[in-house]
Specification:
The chain has 2 domains: about 1-130 and about 230-258, no CATH class; about 135-225, no CATH class. The longest helix has 30 residues, at about 145-175. Helix 5 runs antiparallel to helix 6 (about 100-125). It is about 70% helix and about 5% strand. It contains 11 helices and 2 strands; from the N terminus they run H-H-H-H-H-E-E-H-H-H-H-H-H. It starts with 11 loop residues before the first helix and ends in a 5-residue tail after the last helix.
Length: about 260
């Protein structure tokens, strides 16, 4: 129905069963939670997501772009946790009210990786899994068909909404709308000519989509799939390695191993 966030490639991650990739995403999330108070222990999880990006054919450039766009969040996180842990550990930087210690820096990095690691993992999962197989995977995990269909459609419509918003903004700027001028309230007011036509277009598209789904009998009767992926030996190896690796990292983060 939609390409969505899926990117057509021939790579190792694309060839894996969606269930093994979903298990990997959950393990990345668990390991990130377990190591959230120590950025050094979160680093192996981060490096593994970079490796997964490379194995998916997306390249590490996407990770660099995401991290670059997250630098403000990293700065805010560092300032917050540096203040909380300013009395613990060795002082690395003291500038006025700012007092950065090694403990505060490690915690800040851990909190940053807690956010960025699952994001990178989900990017790999959605970019290497067709929406058709994504819905099949959700139903295999006992998610109701209507809920799975709604989630996949919403996810698939995201790129369409971004492109539509860009077209509306370009059209309004061509008409003389200056979005980067004036105060905050004035800039908010200027976005009204963008929001109204964007919502109008999206409602029109959703109405057409609902008619298509109704004619195809979506949501009625039992859903069947013509093409279903099969669990193969590479999926077993990938899942086993993921369980061992992220299990050790999580145990390390929780202090169960030295």
């Amino acid at each position: 129905m939609f390409a969505g966030l899926y990117i057509e490639r021939k790579s190792l991650m694309h060839s894996l069963d969606p269930r093994s990739k979903l298990l990997w995403v959950l393990l990345v999330l668990v390991a990130s939670i377990a190591t959230q108070f120590n950025g050094l222990k979160s680093l192996p999880v981060f490096l593994s997501t970079i490796l997964a990006l490379s194995l998916s054919g997306l390249g590490s450039g996407l990770a660099v772009l995401l991290i670059f766009n997250s630098m403000v969040f990293l700065l805010v996180t560092t300032l917050i946790w540096a203040g909380i842990y300013s009395s613990q550990g060795n002082i690395l930087l003291e500038l006025g009210w700012l007092r950065l210690t090694d403990v505060g820096l490690l915690v800040a990095l851990g909190k940053f990786f807690l956010i960025i690691n699952p994001i990178l993992a989900f990017v790999v999962f959605f970019a290497s899994t067709k929406p058709y197989l994504l819905m099949w995977t959700l139903e295999k995990f006992k998610v109701p068909h209507k809920l799975a269909l709604t989630f996949v459609i919403a996810l698939s419509l995201m790129p369409t909404m971004v492109r539509a918003a860009g077209d509306v903004i370009d059209a309004q700027r061509a008409r003389g709308l200056a979005l980067d001028r004036g105060g905050i309230l004035d800039r908010v007011r200027k976005h009204i000519p963008i929001i109204v036509p964007l919502f109008s277009k999206m409602l029109s598209d959703i109405w057409d989509l609902s008619l298509v789904l109704a004619t195809r009998g979506a949501g009625y009767g039992r859903k069947t799939y013509i093409f279903e992926p099969s669990w193969k030996p590479p999926d077993t190896v990938f899942s086993a390695l993921s369980l061992v690796f992220y299990g050790v990292v999580a145990a390390w983060g929780l202090g169960l191993i030295g």
